[in-house]
Amino acid sequence: MEDLNALLTPGMLVEHPERPDWGTGQVQSNIGGKVTVNFRDHGKVVIDSFRLALMPVFDDE
């Protein structure tokens, strides 16, 4: 299996492709295929990188 979020590092901004209502999230950690993200409108979530690719946000306006 491939880690779909291997390039994400702490501090990067992301969106959950299936939950746009969660708003933009900030990556807290990325360890062993588990990405912890703190979403603005939902709180802290752990994402399994082998099941879901998060979408990087490069301009959060």
TrEMBL record:
It holds the Pfam family DUF3553. InterPro entries: DUF3553 (IPR021938). This is DUF3553 domain-containing protein. It comes from Sulfitobacter delicatus.
